[in-house]
Amino acid sequence: MYNLNLNPALTPIRPFNYCDKLNLLILDLKNEIMGIRIEILELQAQLHDAPPPPKEDIIQQIKELRELLRIKNIELAKLKEKYEPCLTMDQVLIP
Predict the structure, then answer these.
(1) pLDDT at 32
(2) Is 2 strand, coil or helix?
(3) Under a CB-based contact definition with an 8 Å cutoff, are residues 22 and 79 in contact?
(4) What is the pLDDT of residue 94?
(5) Where are the domains of the chain?
(6) Cα separation of 42 and 50, whole Å?
(7) Which of 16, 19, 37, 45 could potentially form a cystine with 86 if both were Cys, beta carbons 3.0 to 4.6 Å apart?
(8) CB under 8 Å to 46, separation ≥6 — which residues?
(9) CA end-to-end span of the chain, whole Å?
(10) Distance CA 21, CA 3 (A)
(11) Would you give per-residue pLDDT tens digits along the chain (95 residues)?
């Protein structure tokens, strides 16, 4: 299956599988969520310095971002449910 003439340090231990893909999707979604949270914090900081008319726009943006954050958290929970049956390599290799 593997070419034994290759450097063993560069030979993959196992193929990239479904659980790995799910784990990467979860990490990507967590990064998106953190980005949204940072945007919300930046908008809240702007809100304190803004004059009255733009405040309404900023508040609306914050509401939209919070709704997006809620949706992303639901997606994350669904992905984590799919990931539960997956075994990590530590669970496989370490009894």
Answers:
(1) 93
(2) coil
(3) yes
(4) 46
(5) 41-82
(6) 12
(7) 19
(8) 58
(9) 26
(10) 25
(11) 445 555 556 555 656 677 778 888 888 999 999 999 999 999 888 888 767 667 888 889 999 999 999 999 999 888 888 776 675 555 554 44
CA distance 86 to 16: 13
Tokens of 37: 């949270």
pLDDT at 54: 76
Helix (H) / strand (E) element for 71: namely helix 52-83
Tokens 């949706």 sit at which residue?
71
What does the alpha-carbon distance between residue 91 and residue 83 come to, in Å, rounded to a whole number? 14
Can you spell out the DSSP letters for 23-61?
Answer: HHHHHHHHHHHHHHHHHHHHHHHHHHHS-HHHHHHHHHH
* Distance between CA atoms of residues 49 and 42, nearest Å: 11
